[in-house]
Each structure stands twice: as C-alpha cells, then as structure tokens.
Amino acid sequence: MNPLSDRKYVIIGIFLLVGVIYISRLFYIQLIDDSYKLDARNQAFRYNTEFAVRGYIYDRNNQLLVYNEAAYDLMVLPKSIKNIDTADFCILLGITKETFLKKMKKAVQAPNSPRKQSIFEKQLSPKEYASLQERLYRFQGFYVQSRTLRKYPKKIAAHMLGYIGEADKETTKKNPYYNEGDYLGISGIEKTYEKALRGKKGMHIMMVDVNNREKGSYMNGMYDTMAIPGKSLVSTIDADLQEYAELLMQNKIGSVVALEPSTGEILAIVTSPTYDPNLFVGRARNKNFVELSHDSIGKPLFNRSTMASYPPGSTFKLVMSLIGLNEGVLTANTRYPCARGYPPLGGHPKCHPHSSPQDLVGAIGTSCNSYFSFVFKSVIEDKKFHNTYKSYTNWREIATSFCLGVKTGSDLANELRGNVPSIKYYDKVFGKGSWKASTVISLGIGQAEMGITPLQNANLVAIIANKGWYYTPHIVKAIGGNVKDTLLDRFKVKHNTMITDTAIYNIVINGMAKAVESGTAGALKIEGIPYGAKTGTAQNPHGKDHSVFVCFAPLVNPKIAVGILIENAGFGSTWAGPIARLMMEKYLKGKITRPDLEKRMIEGDLIHKIKPKPIEKKKRH
User: Fold this and answer.
1) What are the C-alpha distances in Å from 100 to residues 76, 79, 86, 175, 310?
2) Residue 476 has what pLDDT?
3) Which of 282, 270, 197 shows the shortest CA–CA distance to 232?
4) Which of 178, 534, 547, 563 has the fewest CB atoms within 10 Å, counting from its CB?
C-alpha cells in the first residue's frame, strides 16, 4: 500500500475534523450561546427603562399632598467601558477613586454582571444632570436614565403617607416586576396602594455609536413599550385639620386620630413627634433616616397611631357601661359607693374626690373608678353564666366586637391589634381556676394588661356616636378618580357590634354629655356645639400617667370623633382634652374661640419639660 495514499486520508480527516469543530462552534455561538450576541447588541443598543410616573396623592378637598419631581440615575454597563479617563470621571462626579472602584466592583458582582446595566450614581438633580450630560460622551459604558422622586408641598402626614425606597434582593426574588434599585412603597399608603400608585414600566431601545452617544430609536420605536402612569389617590385626610393637629401636638409624645363616624373616613391621624417627609427624598435619605432613628426619646420613626398599645384608662368605662347595660346587671339608676377607691378591696383601685354614690350618668361624668370596678365585678360574676370562664369569655367577645384587641382592618400599613387579655393568658399567670373578677378588677377601668391603639380608641368613640355600628377606618376614598374601585369595596361594608340597642347607647351618650356640661371635661365646652366626651388618665408604670381623651361632636348627627393620648401628661382634661376640643372646633367652625387655650397647647413642651407661662387673669375694675 502506498504510504502517500494513507497520508492523504489522514490530512483529509484532519481538515474534516477542523471543519466540524468550526461548524459546531459557530452553531453553538449563533444558536445556543447568546453572550456574543449580547456583546454585539450592547455595543449597538441601549435598553432604557422608562419608569412610570407615580400617582399623585390629594387630600379630601383636592389639596395636593404628594407630587413628583424629575431626577436622574447614572447607569453603567461594565462590559462597554473602554479606555476612560478615571481621574477626569471622578472629578466630574465629585467622588474619589476609591469610591469609583467600590461602585465598579458592585456593578460586576451578583446580582449584577459585566453584561448587565445597573445604577452607578442615583438621584442626580436636574442641575447635576445638565452638567454631566454635556461630557458623558467621553465615558463609554455610562449613560443617564430618568426617573421621578416624591415631593411634599406640605410638611405633614409623614407616617400616614409613608415613603418610598429601593427594592432589595428579597423583594426582587418575590416579585419579578422589580429590579434591584427600583423604587417602591416602604410604609404608609405608599406601601398599601403600591400597585395602584406605581403604574407600569416601559422600555425604549436606543441605538448608540462607538462614542456612547444615542443615535435614535431602534426601528423607529417598533419594539418600544410605553410606561403607564400610576393612578392618583384621593385621601380622606383634611390637610388643614392635619396640619393644625400636628401644630398642637408639637413637642409632645403621643397620637391623635380624628374620624368621620358616618363613613369611617380618617380626617386626621397624627403621630408625635413627626418629621418632614421631604427628609426621605434624594441622596440624603439614608443620612436623615439614621439621624431620626437615633432619637431615643421621641422616636419620630415609630408610628404610634397604629403600632403603639396603651391602656385606655377611664375611656374604657364607656365600654363597661354598654356591656353592663346590655347584660342586664346595670341600669341607668344603679348606684355604687365610692370612698376615694373601691371599698371591697380596701380602696383599690383608688379614686379622686367626688360626690357619692352616683348613678350611671353621674359616674361617667365624674369618671368614678369605684363605680366601674363594681360594674366589672357584676358582669364577670353574672349568675346566668354559672362560672367565671363563661362570663369572662362573653365580656371579652363583646369588647372585641368594638375592634379592641383585634385589628380594625384599615388600609394603614403595619397596624397592630392591641390586647384584651385572654383566659389562656390569666391561666398562665395565676393558674387555672385560681383567678376571678377581683383578681383582674383593674380591667374594669381600662388598666391591667389591656392595651389599645389610638386608631382603635378613635374608632371606639365613633361606634358610640353611631350607636353600635361602624365602617372600617380608612385613609383613601378614591383611586384614579374612581370611588367605586374594588380595592375600596371593603370600606363600604357596615359592621355591627354585639350591642345593638340604641337605648343603651343613649344612656352612655348622656353620661358623655354630662362630662362636658359639669363633669371632668367641664372646662372644655364649645360655644354652640354640644358634644360628648370622656376623659382618661392611663396609669404608666414607667413614669407619669398618660393623658387620654375621646369625644365626638355634635351630639346629633356627629361629624367628627376624636381619640387622643399624650404620654406622661397626667389628667385627660389637662392636655389631651384641650387639643381634641380645639380640633373639633377648628373642623366644625373653621375658627377658634379660645386663643388662650390654643396658645397654651402650641407652646406646651412636654418632651423638654418646658411648660407655657400661666395665663394672666384680667383684673376687674
């Protein structure tokens, strides 16, 4: 056999093998591995996300509360960066080389990658953008993407409105709509109504040249998608009342909530101390967040209106009155003695001096602790239930039907339920079968382990004003101009408590009116507006008692109900009562007839222990 012939076949085989390898490689590159395709596209195209304009937020009278302002993010595509002057780039942005390297390292690490665009510098102002855009062509791989930031024309309602922040890794894993760095609602109604407010992102494919300059839309925008703007929200808040309430609550720790009883709409909801919502906008957000979080005294980031649980104190006597009347162990004429305290337990709980014995209306008006200790005992020892556990279960079920110890179901983010102690809890503390009414007697005056939120307190007094029913408290009344949006359907469902007899409520309301006419709220009358109220002094084991007050006005066809608690402020009629009274007058009359009271509330500083000077009495001539 000719050796040259054999060599020929070997050479042919080598060429065939090389050909197969090349063809296979081309097949893999073109049809399977798209990295080269991506590189080519990234050199020629830029995929610009068009962020939707976030929906505006208005108050109930169409005053603008939240709008948008243009901002810009500097984006980077690491794979496209070639031969840039790093020093010049750092000078342009006002950053150090170390910062540049740190940002570049982040841009190529997971979940980012060299072939994936990401944010290099966020939230540039229009002025910074204009300066950068003129010279950006010199830095291939960098480009600017527009977005919007929230702005607040009135520096109010920070906790209610909430704020937006960047989506984290956990969010992007759960919801593919978001990419890391996208903005979304973090708290408040920005969070609750995120889907309505955010709209829908769009995408523009732009052609770019080798100098990173845009040369127009690819295929005249055939493959572009337009962003869909977010829907606007009309809130239930009265911006003027909200602003006034925040003014009255400045330099105080606590919360005040005002509702419209007939609809459940929240007219004002204040947590104090509060903060300017504009502090959480722009690149200074993180710095401001840290500073506010370090305020250990006022804790301005803590939303007390929905997340703080306080003893209701004497305001719970209204519920005890209703339960006692409903169960038939109490009448309007029932009288109990008071010797500056509850006699069967040696004067505990204690009580303040007042005439005794009182009937029910008088006991509400004077806020007698002894009276309602007797009422609680009669309810828990009601013979028709035969044992403490059954009667306590009945008492607790009625109390929770007033939204106490359970969430109201509002559209406010992060609402807590408060606490009406369970049988299981007391069995654990005292032992099964080892406790009775006298063991937990303080529950009758809203103390012991009982805790409710300021929102629940306002809803409670709205229920009494309505004589047994309520709509779920809510903060939004229209979405995208539509009051019939399905998200709002649940706020149109009427709820009834377990006590439906209006005659029972009339008796309790008479007691509340008595409190204003000649009782504990006697110094807080509003000329021309009869109203009902209940003062409260909630015991605080950590310091001075809390000042509590609930009220509604007017007595007939109520338009506003208010629940307020001010920490470490003493009697309900001293601080909480005057603020609630001023808010009701402002809302119903549009003016204030007690400027002296207003001045005292505004100037009162309970955080720094600075009290206003006493009002000088005019000498009579």
Assistant:
1) 12, 16, 8, 30, 50
2) 98
3) 197
4) 178
As a CATH number, domain 239-603 is 3.40.710.10
According to the model, what pLDDT value does residue 285 have?
87
Q: Map residue 5 onto helix, strand or coil.
A: helix
Of 449, 439, 321, nearest to 375 by C-alpha is 321
Q: What residues does each domain of the chain span?
A: 46-83+113-235, 239-603
The type of residue at 11 is I
Nearest-angstrom CA–CA distance, 564 and 575: 10
Interatomic CA distance for residues 363 and 580, integer angstroms: 22
User: Does the pTM of the predicted model rise above 0.85?
Assistant: yes
CB 62 within 8 A of CB 232: no
* Of 225, 228, 272, nearest in space to 248 by CA: 272
Residue 67 phi, psi dihedral angles, 5° rounding: -135, -175
Listing DSSP states for 272-317 in one string gives ES---GGGGSSTTHHHHHHHHHT-TTT-TTS-HHHH--B--GGGGH
Which residue ranges in the chain fall short of pLDDT 70? 1-9, 24-43, 210-214, 221, 610-621
Between β-strands 469-471 and 494-496, what pairing exists: parallel, antiparallel or unpaired? antiparallel
The reported pLDDT for the residue numbered 526 is: 97
Query: Looking at the chain, how many residues does it have?
Result: 621
Confidence at residue 619, expressed as pLDDT on a 0 to 100 scale: 40
* pLDDT on residue 39: 47
Closest CA to 467 of 425, 418, 501, 421: 501
Q: State the CATH architecture for 46-83+113-235.
A: Alpha-Beta Complex (3.90)
The pLDDT, as a whole number, for residue 3 is 58
The helix (run of H) or strand (run of E) holding residue 564 is: strand 560-566
State the pLDDT at residue 395.
Answer: 98
- For 32-43, the DSSP string reads I--HHHHHHHHH
